[in-house]
Design a protein that fits this description.
By secondary structure, the protein is of the alpha+beta class. The chain has a single domain, classed as glutathione-dependent formaldehyde- activating enzyme (gfa). Helices cover about 15% and strands about 30% of the residues. Strands 6-7-8-9-4-3-10 form a seven-stranded mixed beta sheet. A hairpin with a 5-residue loop joins strand 7 and strand 8. It is globular and about 35 Å long. Bound molecules: zinc ion (2 copies). The site of one zinc ion has 9 residues, from loops.
């Protein structure tokens, strides 16, 4: 186990690199149709923390795009492997959240277990685990908001 937390992170192909200056405290699994499309997987597995704690080393290798109208997650995709690198979501002026895929963080020892499945109503496959599952959109958004705020504050 590496201690202290190195914070090194990268996309699956290693071209897009970034660093976390803090260990994320919250992690969740999202079965929304956008995550399914962007990740090319049944669901995403992401951690959340303040964007101020994330430094992108290779901005030129990452393409940012939003996948829905209105205030939406700005998803950074690696130009090389087309995998999600890191996403940013503004929550108020000058305050942004960062969503970091679990697999992109190299030092996993310090990372928390997933707290919940959200958008489970649009799942493509059942998941047999003891993790709470929230199916409908409103409930998923409410639960995710609480979790994301806790992740942002870092407790
Ligand atoms: Zn999602
Ligand atoms: Zn890549």
């Amino acid at each position: 186990m590496a201690f202290p937390f190195t914070g090194d992170a990268q996309c699956p192909c290693g071209t897009s690199k970034f660093r976390l200056s803090k260990i994320p405290t919250r992690r969740f699994l999202c079965h929304c149709t956008i995550c399914q499309q962007v990740y090319g997987k049944p669901y995403s597995d992401v951690t959340v923390l303040s964007a101020a704690r994330v430094a992108v080393d290779t901005p030129h290798t990452i393409e940012f795009a939003k996948y829905k109208e209105g205030p939406a997650l700005d998803r950074g995709i690696c130009k090389e492997c087309r995998s999600p690198v890191v996403g940013f979501l503004p929550i108020m002026p000058f305050v942004r959240l960062a969503f970091v895929p679990y697999t992109n963080i190299l030092d996993k020892d310090a990372l928390p277990d997933p707290a919940m499945h959200i958008y489970y109503g649009t799942r493509v496959a059942d998941v047999e685990d003891g993790v709470p599952k929230f199916e409908d959109e409103k409930q998923s958004q409410r639960k995710a908001a609480g979790l994301v705020l806790a992740g942002f504050l870092g407790f």
